[in-house]
Amino acid sequence: MSTTTVRVPAKVNLCLGVGPMRADGYHPLATVYQAVDLHDEVRATARDDGAILVAVHTDNRSELALVPEDDDNLAVRAARVLRDHAGVSAGVDLAIRKVIPVAGGMAGGSANAAAALVACNDAWGTGLTRAELEPLATTLGSDVPFLLHGGNAVGGGRGEMISPVLARGSYHWVFAIAAEGLSTTAVYAEFDRINAGHDVPDPVVPDALLAALRAGDAEALGLALSNDLTEAALSLRPELEETLDIGIEAGALGATLSGSGPTAMFLASGEQHSLDISFALSSAAACADVVQSRGPVSGARII
């Protein structure tokens, strides 16, 4: 049977503006995504009995229990959505190799869904283009359409409406991985609690951030990083503030949380600076792991 392996990156939000909850329960977002070279892999092997099965592999045993191996897995849902759309009768075995932190605010589940769409599309020979996969991706999650493409992009709506952003340069990142994940649903609920009774403005992407990307100016980008969910995440996990402070004291050009957290992200001026920030975080035992990365990188791709 046909087998296809797809590598897919994590995402970070260079800015994350969050508006008041909509009638459908979602919050309007204004964000700039960047894909970074921290990758999961999804292998799809077609099978003729119609079953869709998933197995998850990770070196972090504590995370394994957090990733469902049933119909709740986003990669399984992606395969079903594609099969229903394309009228395929075959099944698939999905093997997921996880490196992106689980519940870390870096869209690991959405990355797996994007990878599953690309992998199953190839393994089943359904022949859809990336543009034709995008509407399917939108039904699976806000971050999934972006992860089909990667690079840099502006996200609107609830994050699923993406458009290219003019950008130059490559950026060095340091990620402080927390020992325990943080529920996106819980963070948004805390955001709503904190802002209850207040007028929450409609979100916008800061002009300063877009200008920094156009210029390839890392220092300006560091100053422009922002995340409206930071207060809510720190309310639930106050210890993350110390992690952010350590990176800032180590000279990071900018520091914020990735998405809904708890992963803290620090922008470095170069490879040596990235090493210095990593050493400061590791020495302070401020997190469970420290990862150096670069971005932007391409989205889900067959390897």
Properties at a glance:
303 residues; alpha+beta; Alpha-Beta Plaits; 2 domains; 4-stranded antiparallel sheet; 12 strands; 28% strand
**CATH fold type of the largest domain:** Ribosomal Protein S5, domain 2
Largest sheet: 8 strands, mixed
Which segments are poorly predicted (pLDDT under 50) over 5 or more consecutive residues?
A: none
User: Could you report the average pLDDT, rounded to the nearest whole number?
Assistant: 94
Straight-line distance between termini = 17 Å
Classification by helices and strands: alpha+beta
CATH architectural name of the largest domain? 2-Layer Sandwich
Radius of gyration (Å)? 19 Å
- What is the class of the largest domain in the CATH system? Alpha Beta
Helix content: 25-40%
Count of β-strands: 12
Count of the separate structural domains: 2
- Overall 3D shape: globular
Series of H and E elements: EEEHHEHHHEEEHHHEHHEEHEE
Beta-strand percentage? 25-35%
Quick overview of this protein structure:
This protein has 303 residues and is an alpha+beta fold. 35% of the residues lie in helices and 28% in strands.
